[in-house]
Design brief:
single chain; alpha/beta; two-stranded parallel sheet; 2 helices; 39% helix; elongated
Length: 77
């Protein structure tokens, strides 16, 4: 699941998948306005975004089986 926002709707979807015992893989992204992808140029922001995701997941009791990273060599928008 590509996650670029921490909306209540996204919480609901992940919780439903968790309840149905569906394995959920999360790929953290920035919001669209910030260019989505992690790159070599935004490492500090990417680390901060990852921490925000961890806090959001814990606060909402979300279970992730894996975390994938989509790191682009250069993403210029």
């Amino acid at each position: 699941m590509m996650v670029s926002n921490f909306s209540p709707q996204r919480v609901d979807v992940v919780k439903r998948l968790n309840e149905a015992a569906v394995s959920v893989v999360r790929i953290p992204l920035f919001p669209a306005a910030e260019g989505y992808y992690f790159t070599v140029d935004n490492v500090p922001r990417a680390a901060s975004r990852y921490e925000l995701w961890r806090e959001w997941s814990a606060r909402n009791g979300l279970v992730w089986d894996w975390v994938g990273l989509d790191i682009e060599p250069e993403a210029r928008f």
